[in-house]
């Protein structure tokens, strides 16, 4: 027996998951921005880049396993309990702040990351269950993709305008961001409802064995790993890198990437809702995103004003394609909430595994070979995104061809 859909509760659930992920992003980016202060507290001095970036590695590594775990938990417990557990895990970000050493702090942040990964996975079945209009679905998926950027933008704004106050007491700063999660956890417990994720459809149930054999998911996930290497590092790791190695202000670069990224999202929604092919948009924006950021790195110590402009352009191009990119599986034929959960679980695992490995190598190069070799490697990895996008199926074209065939 199918449960009746409550549209109002559906939108409430989407809003809570979105806001929970925003607070996760705020907590992650703020923690990364405060890395010098945090390592000073735990080690009484500066540390090797590999150690300084350990928390970021742990977060991305946790997300690899969490994305697969999310699908299992969802199918066992249903969306209400599964997402409730995910939001509860986010509160470990609050616990981490007051643990006695860096290693315990890192482990607690890993658990927080598990919750963050589960939250973003659960957005997909909720949208698929409550939203049927494809244009509305694209808008909501676009809003979901910008959740991290919204959190990063808020943090960047605060660190730009109130830098001294934000770094004065890192524990107090992180407590403020992490405490917000408790509000959304309570809201979820009060208003969220359950629904069936195993929608009826012809053929065998789609599981992880099917997903592992799907070459599209591998290309899709590895392409996003290259995208994330640029996207996550530019917002999480590069603040301190720009401050240390260049004439750029790291807080301002974060603000430009996230702010222009939000504007790019609105452009992406408009483009995505038009009857145009997806691959050319992804390819062109990918070239602009990577090319502009690479040029900005080259000019960071000679023409900083132009570097800022290029960084803003990179953020804008980055987010034009982001909602279109993450909506591609929704445009494939035969999608159900269960299949989307499996596909995105493996997708996010592949993406974060690739991004974590690339970032570890980048940090090693930065500490042992220097700034220039590390940045050459960084841009080379990001460029793989453009190559892999060229191998994607054209989802919009297929929809249009089918429509023409039906009309004939």
From TrEMBL:
Pfam families named in the record: MFS_1
CC per GO annotation: plasma membrane
InterPro entries hit by this protein: MFS, MFS_Efflux_Transporters, MFS_trans_sf
UniProt keyword annotations, A-Z: Cell membrane, Membrane, Transmembrane, Transmembrane helix
Location(s), subcellular: Cell membrane
Gene3D superfamilies: MFS general substrate transporter like domains
Alphabetical list of SUPFAM superfamilies matching this protein: MFS general substrate transporter (SSF103473)
One annotated GO molecular function: transmembrane transporter activity
Major subcellular location class: membrane
Membrane topology: Multi-pass membrane protein
Keyword presence, Cell membrane: yes
Segments passing through the bilayer: 55-75, 82-104, 110-131, 143-162, 168-190, 217-238, 250-269, 281-300, 306-328, 340-365, 371-392
Protein name (Swiss-Prot/TrEMBL): MFS transporter
